[in-house]
Amino acid sequence: MNQYFERRYIIGGIFITLILVLLGRLFYIQIIDDRYALYANKNVIRPFIQYPARGTILDRNGKILVTNALVYDVNVTPKEVKAFDTLAFCKLLGIDKAEFDKRLAKARKYSPNLPSPFEKQLSPQLYASLQERLSEFPGFRSGLHPIRSYPDSIAAQFLGYIGEVNDNIIAKSGGYYHLGDYIGISGVEKAYENVLRGHLGIKNMLVDSRGAQMGSYANGAFDTQVVSGEKLTSSLDLHLQKLGEKLMQHKAGSIVAIEPSSGEILAFVSTPSYDPNLLVGHDRSVNYSKLNDDPYQPFFIRPIQASYPPGSSFKPLSALIAMEEGIITPQTTYNCPGYYIAGNRRIKCFHGEQHGTVNLASAIAESCNGYFDMVFEKLINRLGPKQTDSAFTSWRDNVAKFGLGSKLDLDLPSEGTGLLPKASFYDKMYHKGGWRSSTVISLGIGQGELGATPLQLANIEATIANHGFYYKPHLIKSIGERQVIKSEYTVKNYVGVDPQYFEPVIDGMQAVVERGTAVTSKIPGIIMCGKTGTAQVNGVDNSVFVAFAPRENPKIAIAVVVENGGQGASWAAPIASFMVEKYLRDSITARPSGIDPQRYMNADLMPDISIYIKQQKKQLRRDSIRQARIDSIKKAQATKSATNKNHKPAGTNYLSALKPKDDE
Amino acid sequence: MSNQQRSFFFNVDWLTVLIYLALCTIGVLSIHSAVFDPKNASIVDLDTNYGKQFVFVIVAIVLGIFILLLESRFLSALAPAIYGITTVLLLLVLVVGRNVGGNQAWIPLPGGFRLQPSEFAKFATCLLLARYLSGTNVKVTEIRSFAIAAGIIFFPMILILLQPDAGSTLVFSSLLFVLYREGLSPYFLILEGLFITLFVLTLKLNNLPLIIGSIIVITIAIILLFRRNRKLMMTLLIGAGILITFVLSVQFLYTKVLKHHQKERIDIVLGIESDPHGKGYNVNQSKIAIGSGKLWGKGYMQGTQTKYKFVPEQSTDFIFCTVGEEFGFAGSVVVLGLYLFLVLRIIYIAERQRSPFSRIYAYGVASVIFFHVVINIGMTIGIVPSIGIPLPLISYGGSSLLSFTVMLFILIKLDSNRMGMIYA
Question: In its UniProt record, which GO terms are filed under biological process (chain A) (predicted)?
């Protein structure tokens, strides 16, 4: 013992203090701070995503419309890349050195240890030449990747297309989509995305510090199984669709065919069309911009987005509403002098033809404008001159029940509503009380401010075929192996017209084909009931024909619109008759009138491109004036945020006239 | 008087031996967990660090028993010779040493083993320091004795710094505790504490005027507070001068002398530059391993951080990660508790010696072990710069284990003879 004996306590105290400091810090990082446990999991648990196969889409008879094909990608694992002949590699892929470095950097950023795509969807030729030399390029391997494949190249607008997700979609998906995933962009692919995409499988794997897999985490307790997308059975008839697309080639227009007893859409033709295979594969983006820039707008889904004045095809509907309202009976006659005088207007029958005394059926068969002007005037005036608008509103409501002026809620995105004005529309156009039956008389013969999509036209025919109700038209018959049918598709939607009033109208429609305007389209042995129409849009006559067949126990209701086709009888009716016969008989027989499908397939009726360009220029001018006006308003109301939401960019044209105003 | 009839194990401090064995066992088990490879599982495999450490422990225990059989009276006399041999080895390693991880610290031996002379230098220095300070007429309060004692400590430090092995060099600074116990002015301890604080502040704040200004202001404040005490005033003025010189030299050393990788290591701990994937990777992964252990740990051999090799050098310098991750805070308390108990036990042993040689030597052993523990564990949890020194008895490494074994068992042997003659 010596004099510094007590210093043992100071030294001991220092030892204890410092050990306690260490323990305090350990307490903090091990017990208080949760971050480290999270980091450790993040380090060691890596979720591996297994991509489900996207669901296939079949036609109503189980034939494939779209399926998956495998294509080759080149993947790169940056860590394994060693020095090699970069130049040769770049030359093979057709990229330059800068692009090579950019892609490699992107892959390295994603993960140095995991493979990521370097070049996607190689053409078979490129794959063959690359595969031979791939061993010269360390770190690069080929990988398989499923893409959509369309064996018959049909129904492009119906099926739609898929594309890579963008940042916005990824952010909104709540973690479902990842960079490089595909999503339905349009058509059925978009409408049924949730069903088609299936469920991602996630395998939680343990990895070591170099990213090598060391087995599954917690024996797979937190894994999810990969579930393939559901198979969709569509309502389309592949053969009918094919014929329809052939008949409509070199033409702009639509065919919509519906099975009246179910609402299933049998054909959904929109032309000009494109080969859906163009939107997959290596050249997708090039093809996409080419199609997008096409002035005829192949991406425009005419059956649901174009809106035409129904013209004379509206007449059966007029007659039904008038009978239901007690304005006419089937026996009501009218003596047609070749025109009708409404107020101080004189409305001519087509070509000024004098029909003489007509009843309901013959008025439909002969398409007598006078008769229906008379009916419409009686209808609107029945409450007296002071009550024009309430009589109009009741007429409008009756028309609306047939599905005009609103969406039919088809299972396809971007459906238009058509056009069915309200009384307030005319109040604004003239002034309240400033319009009478004679002012809006053209509505009675399906012209003026009326617009219907081809789908709506076909649905009206299905309603007439069913004597007063329709099933919601739909494109997908059933979902998955279990053939689930949505319950909303089994509900009858009544249009508020007593079944007894349909027979006289159908008589007239049968006469249209038997001896009336569409007599050349008569199908031997099949009773087809139809109605021709001519829809004028911006001075272009569009040929319209609506029909259903056979008369007893109808199997198909159809609407055909051929833009720039003149009268309904000339193009739309024959095309409709071929479609009907093909569907009912599976073949097309020789016609007494001598018409033959081949001629219709070959005919080129594409509206003159100058119409489009002229319209485009007009539109551009209008847009620029409107833009200038908007700008000046904006400046004037600097405090208000006055923006015109309805403003459409330049570039819409003739087609914009087909699009209803409230189409969004 | 030694009695030939007595057992060799008479008076052995079994508690210390028990702690020693516990720590060695924890070491072998931790190394086993750290290096375990499920693909090549085998209980004892001499090719793995675990297998080798197992052999080292057996060799160490045999060596320990051998030391207990020795006649301890020669130890004091042998001290200069042991110190001399170590010095030769330290010089030799600079010539024939193998460079591992930037340090030329190992002499290759046959059979794939390597000798790390700096580990034995600690033990040799403790011995010679004890021998010198226990001599008659030697007082550390006298300038000449202090200079010689400091020389004994500094000489191996310089040789080790040449390797360069900064970690092992710093270990010798812990011997300041020994000098303090033997009468060195407490100012040296206070000064060391201030040095460490100012070292951190200088590099972290990188603002010389502020730091030097603060030193001057605080000094003046204290002088004004105790203005009657003239002696204190002088001490404070000298102290302030030393501190300012120190701050300036730290700044100079850091910017002009230190090598890039040394600067980086200091930067990481001080949080000057944060880069968890680059140079801070080791410490960051080590913190994740220990932090993710929570209270009870993930279970033996269940630590994912260590098992999947996220922590580098996990069987040597970062072995504590395995303890922290697999046994949690509970395991950390046990291991730190064992070390604290060991060093306090050594102090207790030291103070019961009649021989100053034994006491001084014991304090040396306690200081070196304590320094290793605080720096190593402090490093794994990111509060001390990562300077690579092993965790005594637990870290993988034969030289380290054998050197600590020799140190401890010589102490135990000296202690067992505490009732005997005082050798000087």
Answer: cell wall organization; peptidoglycan biosynthetic process; proteolysis; regulation of cell shape
Distance, CA of B280 to CA of B258 (rounded, Å) = 18
d(CA B46, CA A559): 87
CATH of the domain at A103: 3.90.1310.10
Residues A88 and A134 in one domain: yes
* Residue of B288, B357, B375 best to disrupt the A interface, most CBs of A under 10 A: B288
**CA distances in angstroms from A297 to A275, A286, A300, A606, listed in the order given:** 14, 16, 6, 12
Instruction: Specify the long-range contacts of residues B111-115, CB closer than 8 Å, at least 24 apart.
Output: B113/B398, B114/B399, B115/B89, B115/B399
- Identify whether residues A55 and A17 lie together within a single domain: no
* A443 neighbors A449 (Cβ within 8 angstroms): yes
Query: For chain A, how many structural domains are there in total?
Result: 3
User: Sign of the C-alpha dihedral, residues B343, B346, B351, B357?
Assistant: negative
Domain endpoint, select from A233, A253, A287: A233
8 Å CB contact between B47 and B386: no
User: Which strands, in side-by-side order, build the sheet including A201-207?
Assistant: A45-50, A201-207, A213-216
SS3 A335: strand
Structural domain containing residue A479: 303-602
Beta bridge partners of A474: A264
**Rounded to whole angstroms, what are the CA distances from A559 to A300, A303, A459, A556?**
18, 9, 8, 10
The answer to whether B386 and B379 have CB atoms below 8 angstroms apart is yes
Angle at A482 between CA A479 and CA A483, to 5 degrees: 45
**Chain B interface includes A37 (CB < 8 A):** yes
Tell me if A291 is assigned to some domain. no
Q: Do A325 and A192 share a structural domain?
A: no
- pLDDT value at residue B43: 55
Q: Which chain B residues are Cβ-neighbours of A12 within 8 angstroms?
A: 344, 347
CA-nearest residue to B304 within chain A is A44
Same domain membership, residue A28 and residue A79: no
Cβ of residue A206 closer than 8 Å to a chain B Cβ: yes
Q: Looking at the structure, tell me whether residues A209 and A325 fall in a common domain.
A: no
Residues of B in contact with A206 (CB under 8 A): 304, 308
Task: Give the type of residue at B399.
Answer: S
Shared domain for A127 and A16, answered yes or no, is: no
Chain A residues whose beta carbon lies within 8 Å of the beta carbon of residue B188: none
Chain B CB contacts of A219 under 8 Å are none
ipTM of the complex: 0.87
Decide if A443 is inside a domain.
Answer: yes
CA distance A312 to A309: 9
A28 and A51 in a single domain? The answer is: no
Residue A428 included in any domain: yes
- Chain A residues with CB under 8 Å of B373 CB are 19
Considering only the beta carbons, identify the residue of A3, A7, A206 that sits closest to B304: A206
- Judge if A175 and A316 occupy the same domain: no
What percent of chain A has pLDDT above 70?
89
pTM of the full predicted structure?
0.63
**Mutation for A interface: B134, B295, B310, most A CBs within 10 A:** B310
Helices (H), A53-145: 86-93, 97-110, 124-133
Please, are residues A518 and A573 in contact by the beta-carbon 8 Å criterion? yes
Q: How many other CB atoms sit within 10 Å of the CB of residue A336?
A: 23
* Cβ–Cβ under 8 Å, residues A544 and A452: no
pLDDT in tens, B20-78: 999 999 998 888 887 776 555 555 566 677 788 888 999 999 999 998 888 777 788 88
The pLDDT-based confidence of B216 (bands split at 50, 70, 90) is confident
Classify each residue of B147-160 as buried b or exposed e, where b means 16 or more C-beta atoms within 10 Å of its C-beta: ebbbebbbbbbebb
Tell me if A397 is assigned to some domain.
Answer: yes
Measured distance between the N- and C-terminal CA atoms of chain A, rounded to whole angstroms:
99
